[in-house]
C-alpha cells in the first residue's frame, strides 16, 4: 500500500512509472531486416517467415471466402449470438460517430467546405497467440465497415493447420471482410504497408500486437513508402478509482481482468479507503488462485499498485497524472466526478460497468491509448478510418472582396507570385467591367 | 511536355515522382544529438543553440507580453486589417468544425458516450527564414484557440536583434498566444517536447519547418517522453488540373506561387490541352522574370511538369495517383468534377480560387498533407487540437441484459477474469433479488 501524501513529487512519479518499453537496438534491427526482406522479395519472404514462425506447411497466404465461411460455421450458436450482440452495439455506437460535412460562406462569395471521406484501403492486424480475439476483429472491422472503406484487409497468423480461429472467421464475416491473409508479426505489417503481389498495399494499419508488430508499425509509419498507423502502443493498463462504497470483489475482478492480458499489464487501485485496499488485496488473492491464466496474471499483479489518498479528489489527481488507458470509477457518485477527470482512454462509470463490458460489447472501442498517450491521442473511433479535406471556391465577387487582403498578406510575407495570382485575376475582372 | 498516354506504368510513376526527402544518417544523428543536449541540459542548451544559429546576444528565451504588444503595434494599419480579415475567416471556418459529443443507449441500460476535449498544451512552431509567416501563426493559433487549449506555446527563431517579426507578434496577439519563446530548429522542438525550466512540456507539436525541424518532430513523436505531432511533412506542392477554358496567366501564377516557396517545391500542370501547356509555359517565363524570389522559383520550376492527357477524366486519374497537397481545378465545370477527385489536401475550385486564397484568407487551413500523404492523412483542422474519449455506464438492468454475452465472449477468448468481473456482479444482483 502506497500512502500518496507521504511521497515526494519524485516518489509520486516513480509510483506511477510504467514498465520500460521493449526498445532495444536488436529489436529495431531485426524488424528493419524483416521489412527489407518483404520490400525486396515480397510474398516469398512473407511465406518464409510465416512457415518459420507460425505454420510450417503453409503454401498460400490467401484465405478464401469459402474457407472463411466454412470456419465461421464451426462457431457454436451461443458464441455466434454473443458476437452478434456485441457487433450490433459496436456498430450502433460507431454509426453515431458519422461526421457532418461542413459548408460555410466566410466572406460574401467565398465558400469553404470540409468533407469527410473513408480511407480507401485499411489493414487490420489481429494477433494470434494463446486465445482467438474476435472482439478485436469487431473493434477494427466495424468502424472500417461503417466508414465505407473500399478495401478491408485482415492479417492474422495461421495455426499449424493453416487455419485461423473460427471465431475470427465469424467476426470477419460479420464485418464484411473478404481479404484475409494468413500471416502475422512484422512480416504482415510490412506486407500491408509496402504491398506484395498477393497483398495490395493499404493506406493505414490498425490493431494491437507484440513488440515486433508494434516496432514494425512504428517503422512503416516513418516511411513515405509505408503506411499510417492507428496510434503508438504500450502494455495495457487499468486504473480503478474507488471510495469506501466500492465492492472489493468487483474491484479485484477488474484489476485481474487487466492482469490476465499479459505479464506487463498494469493494474492500479487508487482510493481514499485503507479498508478497501485490504479487502481488495484479500479478494485478489482468492480470485487469482482460480484463474486459468494464473501465471500471467500473478506476474502482472506483482507490479500492481494500491495507492491510498487522503480524498477522492486527490485520487482523481493521481489518475489525471497517470492518464490511464482504462479508468474504472466506483465511487458513491461516479458520474458526478466526470468534470474533474482529465485524461483517460475510456471511462467505466459505476459498479455495473466492468472493463470487460467495454472490451467486448457495450459499443465503445477497446483500442485505446496506453502508456500515458491518453494525454494526447484519442480512443479509436470512426474518424480514424476517415480523412478530412477542404475545398474553397471563390466567385468573382469573392475574389473582389477578399483579393485585396490576400495581396496585403502576400506582400507582408514577401511572396510576389502569391500576390500576382490575385493581381492577374483582379485585373481581368476590372477589364471585364470596362 | 509529357504525353501521359504514351508512357508505360513505370514511366508514369516516374513522371509523378517526388524529390527524395532529406533522410540522411547525418541529419538523424545531428538532430538526435540536439535532442539529447536539450534533454540533459535544458534551457542552457536551447540558449546556446539559439545564440549559435539565430541571435548571438540572446540572454532570455522568453518574449514578454509587453514586448509582444510593442512589436505588434509596429505593424502597419493595412497589414493589421488584412491579418484581421484572414483571422475572422479562419476562425469562422474552424468554429464550424466544433464536434458534437455523442450519447447513445446501445442496449437497454447500457449508455455509451464519446466526448471531445481540447488538448491541454499545444506547441506551435513558426519558422524563421527570409520572410515572416503571420499566416502560419493563424493557421495553428486559431484552431488552438477555438478548441480551447489551456496552453498555446509558440516557438520561433529570433533575429539578431533578439526580436521576432512584428507581423508574427500581431498574429499571436490576435490568437491570444501569450507564451512566446525565442528559439527555433530542432532545439525548439526538443524544448517543447521534453520541457525545460522555462518552457513547460506540451502534448502535441504543430507546424512546418526545415529538415531539422521535420526530423526533430519525427524523433520526438517516436518517444514516450516526447510529444505527438500534427503530420509527417515533405516539400510543398501544387497540381493544377485544367482544360482549354483555363486562363494561362492564372495557371502560371498559381504554379509560380508554389514554386516561390522553396527550390524543392513541386508544380505540376495536368491538362488535356496542348495549347494551354504552350501558353502557360510562355506565361511562366514572362512572370518568373519579375519575381523577387526569382532564383528560388526558377530552381523549383526546373522540376515543374507539364502533363498532357487525352481527356479531363484521365487528368483527374493522374491527380488521384499523385494525391497533391494543393489541387487547383480550372475546368469548364470544376465543381462537377468533385465526385471524381479522390485524394487531395485542399481543393481550389474554379478560376477565382488561387492557392494564395487558401494560403492566407479564405478560411481553410493551409497546413496540409504533402508528399502523397493526402491518401491517408487529413488537412489540419480543429479536431487535431482535440482528443476523443469514451464513457460507458451500465445500470443494473444493463448488466443483466449484456452480462451473458460478455461472459460468452470472455469464455471464447479464454479470459476467466473478464468473465468473473461480470459473474460476481450478476451474482450480487441475483442475491439482491432473493
UniProtKB/TrEMBL annotation, chains A, B:
<feature type="binding site">
    <location>
        <position position="418"/>
    </location>
    <ligand>
        <name>substrate</name>
    </ligand>
</feature>
<keyword id="KW-0479">Metal-binding</keyword>
<keyword id="KW-0028">Amino-acid biosynthesis</keyword>
<comment type="function">
    <text>Catalyzes the sequential NAD-dependent oxidations of L-histidinol to L-histidinaldehyde and then to L-histidine.</text>
</comment>
<protein>
    <recommendedName>
        <fullName>Histidinol dehydrogenase</fullName>
        <ecNumber>1.1.1.23</ecNumber>
    </recommendedName>
</protein>
<dbReference type="InterPro" id="IPR001692">
    <property type="entry name" value="Histidinol_DH_CS"/>
</dbReference>
<feature type="binding site">
    <location>
        <position position="413"/>
    </location>
    <ligand>
        <name>substrate</name>
    </ligand>
</feature>
<comment type="similarity">
    <text>Belongs to the histidinol dehydrogenase family.</text>
</comment>
<keyword id="KW-0862">Zinc</keyword>
<keyword id="KW-0368">Histidine biosynthesis</keyword>
<feature type="binding site">
    <location>
        <position position="359"/>
    </location>
    <ligand>
        <name>Zn(2+)</name>
    </ligand>
</feature>
<feature type="binding site">
    <location>
        <position position="236"/>
    </location>
    <ligand>
        <name>substrate</name>
    </ligand>
</feature>
<comment type="pathway">
    <text>Amino-acid biosynthesis; L-histidine biosynthesis; L-histidine from 5-phospho-alpha-D-ribose 1-diphosphate: step 9/9.</text>
</comment>
<feature type="active site" description="Proton acceptor">
    <location>
        <position position="325"/>
    </location>
</feature>
<dbReference type="GO" id="GO:0051287">
    <property type="term" value="F:NAD binding"/>
</dbReference>
<feature type="binding site">
    <location>
        <position position="326"/>
    </location>
    <ligand>
        <name>substrate</name>
    </ligand>
</feature>
<feature type="binding site">
    <location>
        <position position="261"/>
    </location>
    <ligand>
        <name>Zn(2+)</name>
    </ligand>
</feature>
<dbReference type="InterPro" id="IPR016161">
    <property type="entry name" value="Ald_DH/histidinol_DH"/>
</dbReference>
<feature type="binding site">
    <location>
        <position position="125"/>
    </location>
    <ligand>
        <name>NAD(+)</name>
    </ligand>
</feature>
<dbReference type="InterPro" id="IPR022695">
    <property type="entry name" value="Histidinol_DH_monofunct"/>
</dbReference>
<dbReference type="GO" id="GO:0004399">
    <property type="term" value="F:histidinol dehydrogenase activity"/>
</dbReference>
<feature type="binding site">
    <location>
        <position position="258"/>
    </location>
    <ligand>
        <name>substrate</name>
    </ligand>
</feature>
<feature type="binding site">
    <location>
        <position position="258"/>
    </location>
    <ligand>
        <name>Zn(2+)</name>
    </ligand>
</feature>
<feature type="binding site">
    <location>
        <position position="261"/>
    </location>
    <ligand>
        <name>substrate</name>
    </ligand>
</feature>
<dbReference type="GO" id="GO:0000105">
    <property type="term" value="P:L-histidine biosynthetic process"/>
</dbReference>
<feature type="active site" description="Proton acceptor">
    <location>
        <position position="326"/>
    </location>
</feature>
<dbReference type="GO" id="GO:0008270">
    <property type="term" value="F:zinc ion binding"/>
</dbReference>
<keyword id="KW-0520">NAD</keyword>
<dbReference type="InterPro" id="IPR012131">
    <property type="entry name" value="Hstdl_DH"/>
</dbReference>
<keyword id="KW-0560">Oxidoreductase</keyword>
<feature type="binding site">
    <location>
        <position position="418"/>
    </location>
    <ligand>
        <name>Zn(2+)</name>
    </ligand>
</feature>
<feature type="binding site">
    <location>
        <position position="359"/>
    </location>
    <ligand>
        <name>substrate</name>
    </ligand>
</feature>
<dbReference type="GO" id="GO:0005829">
    <property type="term" value="C:cytosol"/>
</dbReference>
<dbReference type="Pfam" id="PF00815">
    <property type="entry name" value="Histidinol_dh"/>
</dbReference>
<feature type="binding site">
    <location>
        <position position="210"/>
    </location>
    <ligand>
        <name>NAD(+)</name>
    </ligand>
</feature>
<feature type="binding site">
    <location>
        <position position="187"/>
    </location>
    <ligand>
        <name>NAD(+)</name>
    </ligand>
</feature>
Amino acid at each position: 500500500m502506497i500512502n500518496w501524501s507521504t511521497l515526494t513529487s519524485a516518489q509520486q512519479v516513480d509510483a506511477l512509472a510504467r514498465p520500460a518499453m521493449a526498445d532495444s537496438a536488436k529489436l529495431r534491427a531485426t524488424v528493419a531486416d524483416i521489412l527489407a526482406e518483404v520490400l525486396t522479395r515480397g510474398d516469398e519472404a512473407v511465406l518464409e517467415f510465416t512457415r518459420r514462425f507460425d505454420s510450417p506447411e503453409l503454401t498460400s497466404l490467401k484465405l478464401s471466402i469459402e474457407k472463411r465461411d466454412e470456419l465461421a460455421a464451426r462457431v457454436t450458436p451461443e458464441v455466434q449470438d454473443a458476437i452478434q450482440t456485441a457487433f450490433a452495439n459496436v456498430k450502433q455506437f460507431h454509426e453515431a460517430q458519422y461526421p457532418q460535412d461542413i459548408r460555410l460562406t466566410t466572406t460574401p462569395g467565398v465558400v469553404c467546405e470540409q468533407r469527410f471521406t473513408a480511407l480507401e484501403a485499411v489493414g487490420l492486424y489481429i494477433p494470434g497467440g494463446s486465445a482467438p480475439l474476435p472482439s478485436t476483429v469487431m473493434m477494427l472491422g466495424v468502424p472500417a465497415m461503417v466508414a465505407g472503406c473500399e478495401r478491408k484487409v485482415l492479417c492474422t497468423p495461421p495455426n499449424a493447420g493453416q487455419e485461423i480461429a473460427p471465431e475470427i472467421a465469424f467476426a470477419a464475416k460479420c464485418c464484411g471482410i473478404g481479404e484475409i491473409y494468413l500471416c502475422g508479426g512484422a512480416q504482415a505489417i510490412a506486407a500491408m504497408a509496402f504491398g506484395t503481389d498477393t497483398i495490395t498495399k493499404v493506406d493505414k494499419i490498425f490493431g494491437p500486437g507484440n513488440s515486433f508488430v508494434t516496432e514494425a508499425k512504428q517503422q512503416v509509419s516513418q516511411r513515405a513508402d509505408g503506411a499510417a498507423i492507428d496510434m503508438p502502443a504500450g502494455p495495457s493498463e487499468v486504473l480503478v478509482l474507488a471510495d469506501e462504497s466500492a465492492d472489493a470483489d468487483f474491484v479485484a475482478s477488474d484489476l485481474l481482468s487487466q492482469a490476465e492480458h499479459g505479464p506487463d499489464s498494469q493494474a492500479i487501485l487508487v482510493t481514499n479507503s485503507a479498508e478497501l485496499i485490504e479487502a481488495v488485496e484479500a479478494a485478489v488473492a482468492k480470485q487469482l488462485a482460480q484463474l486459468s491464466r494464473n501465471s500471467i496474471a500473478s506476474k502482472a499483479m506483482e507490479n500492481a499498485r494500491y495507492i491510498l489518498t487522503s480524498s477522492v479528489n486527490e485520487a482523481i489527481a493521481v489518475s489525471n497524472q497517470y492518464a490511464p488507458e482504462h479508468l474504472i470509477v466506483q465511487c458513491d457518485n461516479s458520474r458526478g466526478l466526470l468534470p474533474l477527470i482529465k485524461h483517460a482512454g475510456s471511462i467505466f462509470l459505476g459498479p455495473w460497468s466492468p472493463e470487460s463490458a467495454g472490451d467486448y460489447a457495450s459499443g465503445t472501442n477497446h483500442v485505446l491509448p496506453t502508456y500515458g498517450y491518453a494525454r494526447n491521442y484519442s480512443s479509436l473511433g470512426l474518424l480514424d478510418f476517415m480523412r478530412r479535406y477542404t475545398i474553397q471556391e471563390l466567385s468573382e465577387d469573392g475574389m473582389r472582396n477578399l483579393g485585396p487582403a490576400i495581396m496585403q498578406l502576400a506582400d507582408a510575407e514577401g511572396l510576389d507570385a502569391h500576390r500576382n495570382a490575385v493581381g492577374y485575376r483582379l485585373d481581368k475582372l476590372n477589364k471585364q467591367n470596362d
